[in-house]
């Protein structure tokens, strides 16, 4: 049976682009379609959390994202009596550590983040196909047959899998008849990207001079000359999003007559919902990102959770396409849906706090502590002093055998698994798709400053197996290592043959 592509990706927002980049570097064929004629032009998902920055490093474009964006500005909160306070958005100032190289969120408008993603995808030889709408699809035991509408007419794409990253109103989710339970939160709001005068760009300005319903937030967008306006509005009725209309809204809510909006590059009126799909997979079709979960924008969780959905799915699709058991794909929903449920609870709680004028964020918003301890892919067994199966694998500066400075994240980077032995005696047989590295004197890595021991808390003679998405699959003793690995990897890898992925 012939196929046009391995994976059809529907929707070229941040989730679709991340999946495309991940599949491209793994050599998986795909087609990325987008029903709109051009890329999204709004700032909407402007916060990139530390865990997402780690993913962007693995995918090869974190430096470009960091260069295009900037840190979150201090929060300036104005009171009815004319006074104001300036504070950090986070509970405590966060600094990078050896285990966590990205400590604080980065601000970059969503349109700029996606532009960097498209640039990275082009380097890998691929581009989104715009003005291409998924009209219908059918699936069978072997694949998916999709009808695509374009200006040039209709055509059929036959793919082994289909992934819907097509937003909160997902056609793919509706076509699969997946329920999307949740609640409408009773908040309607505007968001707009504007050029204005009358406010400095040093702070994120938060005015609440009356009731919570009359607040307005005006944030300078890093890397641009724009400000993002956010404000609740009445649940019903028209909203004037013209420069004059937004100027009037701002002046009324700030009591400042010198603030003037000159132009609006993008704007939206929306009603906040918190909803979670009952399922993420039906047969050979998956949903991810906003197609699987929608939520209030508070806390900067949405784009990040969407990116992490497909980062979880991408390596599993590649493994199954290469011959791994299809049951591996069941772990996608098992791992990602509980994460989304917790994210909905967090963003909804933060929305309640925002209504009362509280905008502070703590560590849970940075997504570094999210993991899969209860996953079927997390191997029960040894528990390290600091980490266990299902946890994010920490970074750690160290040295190579020739004395060069390196980091564990550089070792993990790529499409492979990593088997890390800490001061072990014997090297196991090579396995296709697994990079085997030993830490210790006269071996590939030297933990000269003790950062690996500090981050992992493992003992001499222990091994850590790290998944392609940077999570710990298991911690093993040297005794009986190879039989344990063989049993585990039989469910996740296509085969067990000698390879060349040894050494950093």
TrEMBL record:
Residue spans crossing the bilayer: none
Limits of the FAD-binding domain: 4-345
Required cofactor names: FAD
InterPro entries listed in its UniProt record: FAD-bd, FAD/NAD-bd_sf, RIFMO-like, Thioredoxin-like_sf
Keywords: FAD, Flavoprotein
SUPFAM superfamilies assigned to the protein according to its UniProt record, in alphabetical order: FAD/NAD(P)-binding domain (SSF51905), Thioredoxin-like (SSF52833)
A GO MF label: oxidoreductase activity, acting on paired donors, with incorporation or reduction of molecular oxygen, NAD(P)H as one donor, and incorporation of one atom of oxygen
Similarity section: Belongs to the PheA/TfdB FAD monooxygenase family.
NCBIfam families (alphabetical): PRK06184.1
UniProt name for this protein: FAD-dependent oxidoreductase
